[in-house]
Amino acid sequence: MIPVETIERKIYLIRGRKVMLDSDLAQLYEVPTKRLNEAIKRNPKRFPDDFMFQMSKDELEDLKSQIATSSSSHGGRRHAPYVFTEHGVAMLSSVLTSDRAVEVNILIIRAFVRLREYLSTHQDLARKLDDVERIQQEHGVHIQQIYDYIGRLLEPPEPAKRRIGFGTSE
Questions:
Q1: In the beta sheet, which residues pair with residue 83?
Q2: CATH tag, 4-121
């Protein structure tokens, strides 16, 4: 079967959502991209905008630059690819009913869940790191104040000025 890591590498961030390309899904399901898209077009009510959307040409260019080169599965298309969110991939299992599609969908959902867990762990670590950094800055200010006080204590006192001449006592 397909390693989850392979699937994770096919998940991209587009419009702030984790998505998979129609061509990558078709490859995993072992069906032509055209057939995958035909099945989706026959069932449009199952794929609202938060489940699936079509990339703009700019988004496609950005994606090509992210992956350094355009693979043959993404190039030479007449239309920008469709992308599927985790919910869209789950909905594909109701449209594609082959055993292969069911098995692959389970793996893809696990990959999305694993990425979500990974991101939440990193967010917790980032928050903790921010706390440590803030505390370190506060301590740095306090330490600098201590050095300033010590520096003033180590300075020799100014000698008392002696007045020249006679003083009057009143």
A1: 21, 53
A2: 3.10.260
